[in-house]
């Protein structure tokens, strides 16, 4: 396939557009008209579990060889994935027990180091039968002991080891090696998304030997994995290089010989890198370069993928007036999500969503959301109801002196926070005072309760509502710093957590979302999209039909050139 | 002359000490520290407890009194140990050694480009004073003096991407490894910086040349029948260039500072981009040592300019 670069003639319009793009400053961007394509949510995954699946490229006869160059914005402070190191680059050296299937766009979970597994009738015991003959890159044979050591580090870390995913696995009672190639997880109570947790790129398997040799702390060690790629070179904040593992347990994979992960911090630089062929793929590029990519179908492809991070204004429900659900509901109804999304469109692509992001099977369909009070575009009825609610709460004349905390990063402090402030003032006569703080200190300020409302970007690694709800909205949740408490919500969440029947779970998820609409802990602006772009010759990843934005391993990638 | 050199070198010492104190205090006064930044990694999914934060700060020596931290830093610097990055654990010396050649090359190329652009433009403008050509050149000079280098850089990048579907490579390639690739990386930033400096140079050359053109010795040269070309080359050009040498020397230090924004605009992995990233990550050791490096270069260049004055003008030397 030809990949020659067509040169477009220099037109006056092109130059003017270039100059306009360069000169645009955030306050102007906030006022930009909404002449953009409407985001279309991707189809939801089926969460199908395929016990006999084998990972292969979706296309027939993939070509072998070549180097894939990926532009990536994420850096990592250390190399221990279980202690929170960024997985985007590191995960390629490792395997999980199970994994999302790349070939069907992450719509099913298939075997990885576990060849197959059994789940007990009460969904409390998961028994995994492991592959024989797998070796780590340093030659150490893989066994059930490695799985046990890995999950002990995650779930019950020793003193001094910080495991950010510990809370996610709190339902696990025991992890045992039954024999050399069998491992058993016993749960205290069932979790429907347990396999999804194991398939996440952060649940990679380390070797027991490496963990023991380093006192369970791999922050300064690039630990050998069992994955399809071997670590070759790392230049800090510049690039990572991986080479094909010639002894990979699946002899068919990987198809390419080498991967270079180039650190490109700016979103627009990542976009231009793919557009100009300096990189072959980027998971998330800037909106402008993404739109240029949409026009350049001859060289690149783009997609919009639901992400599990949201923009939201969190209420401090321990303080007046936000201790009153009527005030929170009034804001939920009156402030226009469509206008906020439009104001922010040059920065990040936010979806009109409810409390479950698109990409999850229980997400409310967009056409249904667009009819709901608070979410519908026509605000006249919602604003009237909101003003009535405020009056009932004793704030008929509005509210003064609200402390509105925001991170100092320009898109938050200079676009989203002022846009929200303006909406509150215009629709409900609520006057806020924006106070900015360093992004790193935003959590500390919230923990101390030093805010009335705060603009934040909460999110989770899973689309399922349970982890987010347990962390942020359950009474006493570890990041429920606004003190939100709703007994009905807690009760339904408890039922949802332990329910395994899909129909019942769907009903409970709907109830949870309805409750959050009625008694909102946040003003949810919406979950975001990621904007991947890739050269036309990048195959094997089914990126055009991917269900959600999870940027993990890519051993089925091949280059059609 | 030796006394003059010694006095200028000694005068540079308090400047450098002042720089170290300023940057050290600035880092401590700003909210947030490297531990807070590292702890917030993961966009809300990764938080350390207060006790874990305290222990992390203690292990990095951030809980010690400021004067102790400052003296330890100074002691390390004097021993040639620039420490390691808080955020990445990489020796800062390695970062500087890997990235400095690119930044220095860009600054050097920018100075050369500023001469190639500024000197002929300034000279033509002076020789054709108050003609249409002079007005056009002066207009161009004013525009490039007013427009910041990073804006010029961003415009280059956008036009090259949108029109020519091209952008410079993203990795570090040294000139001695692959000159062609290296020039692709460095020419854009050098041109963006060189155009701004070239405009300043042109203005300087023009006013300097106009001054020289009115000197008695130029009138004498013309009166004795020298051809105009020789008058310009032998008498006007050489004398008008003296202030340009001084300007370029001082500008070299400024270019290193200016490269921060331009490297960011082009995505060139030089020292400037490393400094921007270190600022974002509150990587104190990295910021302190890189600002110290910039300060040292700037002071050294100023010193050289001072010394060149002494060399060029005996009146200063003998003061």
Describe this structure in words.
- The complex is a heterodimer of chains A (561) and B (319).
- By secondary structure, chain A is α+β, with helices and mostly antiparallel strands.
- Chain A contains 17 helices and 21 strands.
- Chain A has helices at 12-23, 26-30, 87-90, 144-155, 194-199, 208-213, 267-275, 287-295, 325-334, 337-343, 366-369, 380-392, 410-428, 439-447, 465-473, 487-498, 502-518; strands spanning 48-49, 67-72, 98-100, 108-111, 114-119, 125-130, 172-179, 182-187, 229-235, 239-244, 258-263, 281-282, 300-302, 305-315, 399-407, 430-437, 453-456, 522-530, 533-535, 538-539, 558-559.
- In chain A, strands 9-10-11-2-12-19-13 form a seven-stranded mixed beta sheet, with helices on one face. A five-stranded mixed beta sheet of chain A has the order 16-15-17-14-18. A four-stranded antiparallel beta sheet of chain A has the order 5-6-8-7, with helices on one face.
- In chain A, strand 15, helix 13 (410-428) and strand 16 form a beta-alpha-beta unit.
- The longest helix of chain A has 19 residues, at 410-428.
- Residues 1-39 and 41-46 of chain A have low confidence and may be disordered.
- Chain B has 319 residues and is mainly alpha-helical.
- Chain B has helices at 2-29, 34-39, 50-59, 66-78, 92-127, 132-146, 149-162, 179-213, 216-223, 228-266, 271-280, 284-312, 314-317.
- The model of chain B is unreliable at 41-46 (pLDDT under 50).
- In chain B, helix 5 runs antiparallel to helix 10 (228-266) and helix 11 runs antiparallel to helix 12.
- Chain B is built from 13 helices and no strands.
- Chains A and B meet through helix 1, helix 7 and helix 14 of A and helix 2 and helix 7 of B.
